[in-house]
Write a structure and sequence with these properties.
Layout lengths: L7 E3 H10 L4 H9 L11 E3 H15 L1 H10 L13 H5 L2 H8 E2 L7 E6 L2 E6 L5 H16 L4 E4 L12 E6 L4
Length: 175
């Protein structure tokens, strides 16, 4: 996703990152400070490009599992669109939630398709790593519906392989 220079992310999103870094919090704070982001407030807005860079750098330094945990923490710190009380509604909420918690970045290149009563495909073109996106997706379903959905990732359509998007398949139960 090409980011406009004025694209911003909510302080709640940045706080989610800090909350999930655990023992590596000082490293994350230092990486943010190197980009001029200090004393993070949930009501403030910060450079999306800088925050995405920090998450990518954390992935390189402490691994994809840490970035997955950061993504899973996001639902505990952000605003949700109203009425997310069913599988299909949660599956369709990622673009609107991105738009609520980011400015000047559209819906993050996020699309979804309901593929069955309790299954969906979610395509994410956000500037974040795919393991972060995976954490956000699973975190939303857990936080909103109290389920851990069956999850699969398309190995070919993946940002790690140079694709502009990652494709995520989720269902209430294994297919």
């Amino acid at each position: 996703m090409r980011l406009p220079p004025d694209a911003l992310v909510s302080g709640g999103h940045v706080l989610a990152m800090l909350a999930a870094t655990g023992a590596f919090r000082k490293m994350a704070e230092q990486l943010l400070a190197e980009r001029g982001i200090t004393n993070v407030s949930p009501e403030a807005w910060y450079s999306l490009a800088s925050c995405a860079e920090v998450i990518h750098e954390l992935e390189m330094k402490i691994g994809p599992n840490a970035v997955f945990r950061i993504g899973k923490e996001v639902p505990n710190h952000i605003q949700f669109p109203p009425g997310l009380d069913g599988f299909d509604k949660v599956a369709g909420s990622f673009g609107p939630a991105f738009a609520l918690n980011h400015r000047n970045a559209g819906n993050g290149g996020i699309e979804h398709e309901i593929t069955g009563p309790d299954s969906a495909t979610i395509v994410s073109g956000t500037p974040y790593p795919c393991d972060f996106d995976r954490g956000v997706i699973l975190g939303f379903f857990h936080a909103l519906l109290h389920i851990v959905p069956h999850y699969q990732h398309d190995a070919l359509l993946c940002k790690k392989r140079g694709s502009a998007v990652c494709v995520h398949y989720v269902s209430r139960t294994a297919p």
